[in-house]
Specification:
The protein is elongated, with a radius of gyration of 53 Å. It contains 19 helices and 17 strands. Among the domains are: 160 residues, ATPase, nucleotide binding domain (Nucleotidyltransferase, domain 5), CATH 3.30.420.40; 48 residues; 124 residues, Threonyl-tRNA Synthetase, Chain A, domain 2 (2-Layer Sandwich). The strands form 4 sheets. It has a 5-stranded mixed beta sheet. A 5-stranded mixed beta sheet has the order 11-10-9-12-13, sandwiched between helices. A 4-stranded antiparallel beta sheet has the order 14-15-17-16, with helices on one face. The longest helix has 56 residues.
Length: 636
Amino acid sequence: MASNREISSTEKLLNVIRGKAKTASDEEPSYKPVVPKKKAKSFSSLTPAFQRPLTVGVDIGHQALQMVKVEEVAADQWRLVDFRLVPFPATTARGSHEFTDFLKSEMGKFCGTAKGIQIWNLMSSSKVDVRFIKIPKVPRKQLENAVYWTAKRELSFEDMDTILDFEVQSDVVEQGVKKTSVMVYMAPRREVESVVELFADAGYQLSGLAIAPFAIQNLFRTKWMPTYGETLASLYLGREGARIDIYSRGSLILTRDIKTGMNSMVESLVESYIDRKRPSTRDMRWSGAAPMDFTITPTQAHKLIMSLDPDAPALTPDDAGHDLSEEDIFDMIRPALDRLVRQVERTFANLGGEKVHRVYLAGVVNAYRPLIDYIGEQLGTECGVMDPLDPSIPFISGLTAPATASEKASLAAAVGLALSDNTRTPNLLFTYKAKEKMATVSRVNRIILFSLAGIIITGLTVFAWQERIASTKKATVSDLNQQLSSLNLMVDTKLILQMAAKDREERRLKKDYGERYFGMALISELSALTPENVRFLKLKSTLGRPEQKAAAGTKAAEKGSPAAKPAEAGVKTLEIDGIVLGERNMLDGYLSSYVLKLKGSPLVKEATVQKSVIEALQQNKTEGEVLHFVLNLKLQ
């Protein structure tokens, strides 16, 4: 029966998918990035955004400090700048001030001032738990919560003590249901902080922290080492155990720790050595020899196994088992190798029928060819040593690789770290939450950039349009100037005065014509506007002639009387006395309509009804009622 905790986690996950509940991860998920405290940098010390920085991969191994420096010279193009292997001083213990000083000194020689350099360090894989889970297909906004609660249900961890991060891999269909495959990895927060503090004490700020499987993954994802689209495996033989990492198309799809490692080989050799060296009891009684010690210590056995490596120093007569051949030593560790191979085969069986085409061997005794061939034969696949410094790799030029195969193989993780980038490498210092914030900032920056680009393009378009209009107008002005030049017309003040006088004379003549024929025009306008039911009884007009106005003004001046106002002297009026015929109730409407027509005439300035009376009219011996009116019109 499931525990209450598991049931609660499942319900929370379902609620998140249905969008019905807020989770603790909505506030602050446990997988927050660990960012060390750093001093404020001056503006001049900041690396320009367009400059591609160098990346240094640092692997603090069991016996040596391994550092590799790589520069990205172009998109998907790298250059190996430098590498260094520095053995640890015999008297220096990890965690001591001497070790920090040693790290500071060696990194100072290798990295310099560290300006513009990203530093990635390798963390022990045994301290990081990597799992592969499947979550229901959810929108992107709910992905973080779905992963968190699924991991919370399937894994046991405390939010405050654990750094949790994940990487979305691919969409899968499981029993007809669409799901998303996710790689989840988590590490103790204190372990991560201790690594960050170590480098901070040495005067360097870490840009990233990863494990060996992620570093090897970089070699495939950057095509530093080709995968040919095949499924590959990396088998690491360590002191306490082994680890098998499987990559499909360059991405890690499975990692598993195996208990059988160097210590298992040591135990197997110790047992076999005692059985091989100890004589039987019968032989001892027959010879009469005293009992002797035919045991071998684990340290001696370890040295004996390491002697198989062609790059290791040869055994001396003082070493236990120096008289054994390589074949004898290999036979002694064969039982441990068989156990290792069986566990690797069980791991391959979990791939769902996917075949592993090649196995890369790393760790101790990684250059002993019989051991490599034996593992490959037992697994039924090609087996070899991972060599990231192979001269055939196009990114390596101008550097002399280490002389031994063991040293080159030991640099694989450091080279992979130097190829790290937050876009392709899982980083314990830069988790999903920080990536989401950076993606949001990038989206805002892109929107701003596109908006500015749109404004600039619009401005350039308007500018080009105005330039075209200006060019057209310049061409028109040029044509007009050419036409003017062809006329050969000399313009001076006398000519301008003559033209002005001629224009005034023309305007005066037109005004005189207008005054002279104004009466005729007025009669024509009245004929056109007056309807049939309106009859004129009498018309009285005051039009006035310009000569008359001038004479009247002169007489008034001679008599000494005040001069007439210009407005009064030039007023034109017309008084219309008439009748409107028609039905009695329509007479006022007819008159109003007539007045509106007159007001709309261009010759009439104002129309005023002075009289409007209903009167009887006898016409043709019949009597009727008409509307007698008097209109006063002010003319233009």
